[in-house]
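Much of what follows relies on a compact textual record of a protein's fold. A record is reproduced here so that you can trace the correspondence yourselves:

. . .
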Amino acid sequence: LMAACASHGYAEIASQVFEMMKQKGLDPRIEDYTILISCCRKDLDRCCELMAQMRHANLQPLQRTYQEMLQAYIIAKDVAGAKALVTEAGGRLDTGSRKVQQLL
């Protein structure tokens, strides 16, 4: 359901589903955080908040998580934040990939 929300840009619905999962006692997976970051990529503050929650839950970002975060930084025109994220990601972000190259 959250993936469908992401593909259609329904950030609010995806956020509600995410919160409902937590209320029902389901621990969000890294994939759930990544999908929600994708949905919210036009709201950098929300994306950063989700990354913090993810880290607090001891979940390590995936390559795709970093790609979605990079996109959020670029949309927000936060070049310094984007560069810091690329540095943080290290080898977990394929800077040679076509998608990442397009973002950079």
About this structure: The two ends are 30 Å apart (CA to CA). The chain has a mean pLDDT of 88. DSSP finds seven helices and no strands in the chain. The CA atoms of residues 28 and 98 lie 29 Å apart.
